[in-house]
Amino acid sequence: CHHITGECSCAPGWTGHDCKHPCSSGRWGRGCANSCACDGSDGGCDPATGACSCEPGFTGQRCQ
User: Fold this and answer.
1) Could you tell me which residues come within 8 angstroms of residue 32 by beta carbon, excluding any fewer than 6 positions away?
2) In the beta sheet, which residues pair with residue 45?
3) Residue 29: pLDDT above 80?
4) Quick one: pLDDT at residue 26?
5) Where on the phi/psi map is residue 63: left (φ > 0), alpha (ψ -120 to 50), or beta?
6) I need a surface site. Which of 2, 10, 33, 62 has the fewest CB within 10 A?
7) pTM of the predicted model, to two decimals?
8) pLDDT score at 41
């Protein structure tokens, strides 16, 4: 936490005042600032790394 403001600096994939909330679906990274870029998936990706979680029958970095 910041020594003056008390604001938490959350790890990538986490958000909220106490960093206990994962990024919402479709978002990832520090502050959940990035959008998932996955084609053949459920629209979700790893909240920390942005790696796509492909649906059955799809492969590749973006599930294309």
Assistant:
1) 13, 15, 23, 24, 47
2) 52
3) yes
4) 86
5) left
6) 2
7) 0.74
8) 60
Domain-wise residue ranges, the chain? 1-63
pLDDT in tens, 31-52: 999 998 888 666 678 999 999 9
What region, left, alpha or beta, does residue 45 occupy, with left being phi > 0 and alpha being psi -120 to 50 degrees? beta
What is the architecture, at CATH level 2, of domain 1-63? Beta Complex (2.170)
Return the HEC string of 17-62: CCCCEECCCCEECHHHCEECCCCCEEEEECCCCCCEEECCCCCCCC
The enclosing H or E element of 13 equals: none
Contacts of 36 (CB under 8 A, 6+ apart): 26, 27, 28, 43, 44, 45, 50, 52
Q: By three-state DSSP, how is residue 64 classified?
A: coil
Q: List the structure tokens of 60.
A: 């590749």
